Amino acid sequence: MLKELVRNDGERFLKFPKLDAIIADKSAWRTDEEFGREMLAGVNPVFISRLQEFPPASKLDPKGYGNQNSSIRTEGTVFNPAEHGVEGSVWQLAKAYTAVNDSGYHQLISHWLNTHAVIEPFVIATNRQLSVLHPINRVLHPHFRDAMSINALARQIFTNADGNVFFCLQELGFH
């Protein structure tokens, strides 16, 4: 990685080799096979599941959160694989929405919530209860060293009322 940071060969920073499939066909990323491969090899392959109830219903209290039930209905909601024309474009958009939602889930839930947010109470408890000379503190310190400052910065940038996550949700009409 250090070699990548101090490149002097004229190549772009972090330029990775192209996949063999892309070298053979520049449009290979659009195929259903490549989409399936990316979803199964991606960051959340275990979260791929079949919808258990249709339309999906929210269990949130409507008094506190408003109506969260889906307005999706059976007619006009099934996207079938297609390669050409309007149907092909709609199918590509359906795959794009799936990829974007998968990425968003990974960033907000899998990465932030299940990693950064979960570790915070342990960092606080370790700093409050264990001496800096305690063997467990010494083992944990390299892992906890920057956790609180990273989390504070993430909250400041992403998850506060004016942050990126809430801005995007407001733009989509969620208040």
From TrEMBL:
It comes from the Eukaryota. One of its GO terms (biological process) is lipid oxidation. Keywords: Dioxygenase, Fatty acid biosynthesis, Fatty acid metabolism, Iron, Lipid biosynthesis, Lipid metabolism, Metal-binding, Oxidoreductase, Oxylipin biosynthesis. Its cofactor is Fe cation. Residues 1-175 form the Lipoxygenase domain. GO terms for molecular function: metal ion binding; oxidoreductase activity, acting on single donors with incorporation of molecular oxygen, incorporation of two atoms of oxygen. It is an enzyme of class 1 (oxidoreductase). Its EC number is 1.13.11.-. SUPFAM superfamilies: Lipoxigenase. Pathway: Lipid metabolism; oxylipin biosynthesis. It holds the Pfam family Lipoxygenase. Plant lipoxygenase may be involved in a number of diverse aspects of plant physiology including growth and development, pest resistance, and senescence or responses to wounding. Belongs to the lipoxygenase family. This is Lipoxygenase.
